[in-house]
Automatic annotation (TrEMBL):
Gene Ontology CC: dendrite; early endosome membrane; endoplasmic reticulum-Golgi intermediate compartment membrane; growth cone membrane; late endosome membrane; lysosomal membrane; recycling endosome; synaptic vesicle membrane
Organismal lineage: Eukaryota, Metazoa, Chordata, Craniata, Vertebrata
Transmembrane intervals: 153-174
Pfam families associated with the record: Lamp2-like_luminal
Organism: Phoenicopterus ruber ruber
Designated name of the protein: Lysosome-associated membrane glycoprotein 5
Claim: Cell membrane is one of the keywords in the record: yes
Classification via InterPro entries: Lamp2-like_luminal, Lysosome-assoc_membr_glycop
Protein's job: Plays a role in short-term synaptic plasticity in a subset of GABAergic neurons in the brain.
């Protein structure tokens, strides 16, 4: 059994191009002299109006390229792609933002290889662009929303608990002031003989 593994990061000098349409958009990113090309295909919401999503991914990689593949078993160009993908779902008019890492499994043309795409710190808007280089209001991914809730929930609960304590102390103080000036009538009848 021979296994080979390569972590291929997206380099800073990557070339980008794309096509923007009303219901379909495409983003193509290539780097290291097109040894690696990542294509993202987006669909508008025909079946579910108002929802935009990443519908397909295609990743072309060259195992003959020596930066990430040192001793490839079968060097050459391969393509990995997704089928029936529904990711990065975003309401119309908003950009998609996700700081958390997401993993998408791709099926390779070389069936002996497994390809996983790791996305993190993503911000994309394939539709409803109002101005160049300006994102619309962001729609956070569920993982980021959950993390944000986990960060703010203890603060909210602490504020509520503090407010309950303050209200309880205020009610006790007011009750104590109102009852302090009143004559206390003994409840035990044996104490009546000392009155008077």
């Amino acid at each position: 059994l021979i296994t080979e593994q390569a972590d291929i990061p997206l380099s800073r000098g990557a070339e980008m191009k794309g096509k923007c349409g009303t219901n379909e958009s495409e983003l193509e990113i290539s780097w290291l002299e097109q040894a690696y090309t990542l294509k993202l295909f987006f669909l508008g919401g025909k079946k579910r109006p108002g929802k935009k999503r990443l519908s397909r991914i295609q990743f072309t990689y060259d195992t003959a390229e020596r930066t990430y593949f040192k001793d490839a078993v079968s060097p050459g160009k391969h393509t990995a792609s997704s089928h029936r993908l529904s990711a990065l779902v975003t309401p119309a008019g908003k950009s998609y933002e996700c700081q958390a890492q997401q993993t998408i499994s791709l099926i390779s043309s070389d069936h002996q290889k497994s390809v996983q795409l790791l996305l993190s710190e993503v911000r994309v808007q394939p539709f409803d662009i109002t101005a160049d280089f300006v994102f619309s209001e962001e729609h956070k991914c569920p993982v980021d929303q959950r993390e944000q809730l986990e960060e703010t929930l203890p603060l909210i609960l602490g504020l509520i608990l503090g407010l309950v304590i303050v209200i309880t102390l205020c009610v006790y103080h007011i009750h104590h002031k109102l009852t302090a000036n009143q004559v206390q009538i003994p409840r035990d009848r044996s104490q009546y003989k000392h009155m008077g």
